[in-house]
Amino acid sequence: MSTTRKNYVLLISSIAALGGLLFGFDTAVISGTTPFIKPYFNLDDIWLGWTVSSLLFGCIIGVISAGKPNDIFGRKKTLMAAAFLFLVSAIGSALATNLVVFIIYRILGGLGVGIASMLSPMYISEISPAEKRGRLVSVNQLAIVIGILLAFISNALLVDSGINNWRWMLAVMGIPALLFFLFLFFAPESPRWLVQKGFSGKALTILEKVNGDEAARKELKEIEDSITEEEDSGTFREVFSPR
User: Mean pLDDT over residues 17-37, rounded?
Assistant: First the structure.
């Protein structure tokens, strides 16, 4: 694999892994704000627990609902939607003066977490050469941990920033969210999704950048064969059936 192709794949995988970074950041950043949002919103322990965990409620909805738009609009556009949700959540929760509004924006952030947790590793696996796939997908896992670390670091740096310190802790997530959204404009669509939608020529062009000409044609044939072998549709009943 040439250095140019290797750097290209690493760059694209790193862009997708920003979804993992935001996943880690958004789930961890709330921990630094709890001593400040509790008196601000006058929360008892039960309401504090729900306020913190509301993001995970949104995450559940995001994971369940991401599949259909992912199939219809593609990995790239759905990841851009997740990036937009992260950005809206960061700004909205930082500006919230009402508990209900705050929780709604946290749930929106959870939607982004759910979508990114499913699609970022999927996208990386579909864009990566077979022999590098496992290694590159692990970049997303590393990004999650880095996101958690950055959340703790930013909270520590902002804790003495004044009466609105918790707002800054939440707002700072908007920076990587905006970068994620903008960088995705330069990322290609998943070759597998393109083949599913009948754009095999575009898929081949992307695969050639990743694998080289000969390997790209072989990879395209394997994708086409695997899609042909798949069943036309699946249902939730199948998911919960004993078989």
Answer: 94
